[in-house]
Structure prediction request, 564 residues.
Amino acid sequence: MSILKRVIFFALLVGLWELLYKCGIWPEYVLPSPVTVCKTLIRGFHDKTFLYGIAISMKRIAIGYGLSIITGIFLGLLIGRIRICEETLGTLVSGLQTLPTICWLPLSLLWFGLNDKAIIFLVYMGAVLSITIATESGVKSVPPLYVRAAKTMGAKGWKLYFEVIIPSSLPHIITGMKQGWAYAWRSLMAGELLIVGLGLGHLLMVGRELNDMSQVIAVMIVIIVIGIIVDRLFFIKVEQRIRERWGLAKG
Amino acid sequence: MVTESVGIGNIMDVEDVKVKSRAQTSVDGIMPKLRIQHVSKSFQSKHGLTYVLEDINLEIQPGEFVCIVGPSGCGKTTLLNIVAGLEKADKGEIWANGSKVNGAGTDRVVIFQEAALFPWLSVVKNVEFGLKLKGIGSRERREMALEYLKMVHLSKFQHAHVHELSGGMKQRVAIARALAMNPEMLLMDEPFSALDAQTRWILHYELQNIWMKTKKTIMFITHNIREAVCLADRIILLSTTPGRIKCEFFVELPRPRDDNDVNVAEYSTRIMKELKSEINKVVKCEMDTDSCVECDIKCTTEEPAKTDIGGGI
Prediction:
């Protein structure tokens, strides 16, 4: 039923769009018809330009986001467990968190030049801080009882981290990863719009340069759909599993 | 009833008991499983230094079931934590299995008031936890875990999530998890105090059976005297602020004992009288100065009611 409701809602939305187009208030290059956009979408996938764009963007985000998960969790553990790191690194991280990711662009360009590395760096900076902060709060909310119980069963050193502290803070880490993904995706698009070099953001800019509004809208739809797919298929599933395990949600 | 007279007759004076146990160890040369020597512990609080434990000396023999009883705040849990190696004593030494305790160790597994099961693991994986840390292979440790789950009658729930279990079941999983480690001794910190009376009754029975089967040395902390009488070979009564060993009792009733047994009730009453003065001290400490009436009420309500005694089997 909920799917049906959604289908009807979006069909109505597209209908309204078509209606506005039919009224002819705005010219075609300002508001293309849904049919044209659909055709552009099909053409884009058919001649593989969209597919290449998606592949290139995904590669960048996979590297940047992957690195940010590894370092974010590591930094979070350090800050959450070691007093001196909390007082030093912790302050730095919460300070940097207030800086919008796009502010790293000039620095990134000067360090890496106009290339992939600069975009990956932006993606990385977008995600790493929120993952760090979420991991830190997860580590701090590990019930001390778990640690004590694990210690009496012989958990020490890195085993204590891998067997107790990380699993116990997993709900927080996943929330941080989800937020980090949203930031990473945004910074990726910003980077690709401003730094030339293929990718979905670049396709958007090509649309603008060619005055091809249907391509602009088509690429925007692709970006939204990918965002939804990752959120629904990955994060929501994982979160639900964790909630079931922890007994936070019934049924 | 024969047991009744035996039971009451066995409440001895502290001095007698000490002499007896010391003599035993020296003659037989049996090494005690646990030796607590001159342990003291204090905490810094707002009102200055508070002595929680003062010069505790205690020996626990292999296979002995010892309950430590005392009013709240007498340092029972602190003592257990020190024995477990989770806290450090200010003074004194702990010797377990002939070696000095220096931090937590797998020979002394603790069962806490809350089960402390890990919610990210299924029931059987929780039981496997310690075995995995020991580096035992996955098939072997699964077999061992299932064996101990069977001992606490929870084989059916091996794949359940932790939150699906009731409080009593959780505590049984915790017992299985501790036993699976095959520790030299079990340290139990008020493990049943958060459970309802029926569940506690069942678990008292089950724990006694497990103890008789495995012959583990058990140090059990509780504030419930009835529970202590029901479970222990020997009851150590701690006084409060500072915690000192006030006296000890030997319980020589046949096992498995029942919470509502006449003899158990009788014993509890005797011990309760000893504890009364300590409870008065707590009341004076924690309540307003004019609360003597309240303390009397508190003492009488915790004494076993007459009707209870009749319920013995």
Notes: The domain at 38-245 of chain A is CATH 1.10.3720.10 (MetI-like fold). Chain A has a mean pLDDT of 91. Chain A is about 80% helix and 0% strand. Residues 213-246 of chain A form the longest helix (34 residues).
